[in-house]
Amino acid sequence: MKLVPRIVLWLYALGVGAASVFVLLQYAGLELLGRNFVVYDDGAAVAAVFLLLSIFFLFYRSTPTEREPQTIMHKLENGDLKISYDTLEQLTLKAAAGVRGVNDLRARVHLNEGGTMRIAVKYSIEAGLEIPKTTAELQGTVKQFVEQATGIKVEQVTVYVMELTQAPTVAKKRVE
């Protein structure tokens, strides 16, 4: 939520909360502002509900909920570069998509303490392909592509083969 609507909501909740407290104090029998208003049970119950809602809005929406996305910081000659994990995962998927026989890709990026990263890739492989050979090709392709695109060293590419899939069959069209 942006700043101005948040301030308006906060002021509204503060005003409604103050009015609710006033009504509840009148219900308790305190004389405020030189007058004693009669407040019935229904009015006190409504004031209590509005007070609880005001407290909720004062505390729940007063703090910003938007967080900066997780990023990996890379030191460059002229300053720092921050690359989001989402971007790194997209780069990983782009590189892995070029490997023959690899389908249903999912990727995760983890930052190591030394400034390097680890990448985990889950995928399905076409039946009939050599899993070790395809995995090695996938690891090498992802590592090289991500390092070249970002300049950040990839320490490890872990690969999880989730299932076998059938190779797509190409049906020949009959010409009559």
From the structure above, extract its key features.
two-stranded antiparallel ribbon; elongated; alpha+beta; 3-stranded mixed β-sheet; single chain; 176 residues
Report on the architecture of this protein.
By secondary structure, this protein is of the alpha+beta class. Helices cover 44% and strands 25% of the residues. The chain has four helices and five strands; from the N terminus they run ααββαββαβ. The strands form two sheets. Strands 3-4-5 form a three-stranded mixed β-sheet, covered by helices on one side. Strand 4, helix 4 and strand 5 form a beta-alpha-beta unit. Helix 1 runs antiparallel to helix 2 and helix 3 packs across helix 4. The longest helix is centred in the N-terminal third of the chain and has 25 residues. The chain is elongated. It starts with a helix and ends in an 11-residue tail after the last strand. It comes from Tumebacillus lipolyticus. Belongs to the asp23 family.
Proportion of helical residues: 40-55%
* Stretches with pLDDT under 50, minimum 5 residues: none
Major sheet summary line: 3 strands, mixed
Question: How many helices does DSSP assign?
Answer: 4
Q: Give the number of DSSP strands.
A: 5
Assembly category = single chain
Family: Belongs to the asp23 family.
Pfam families: Asp23
Organism: Tumebacillus lipolyticus
Protein name: Alkaline shock response membrane anchor protein AmaP
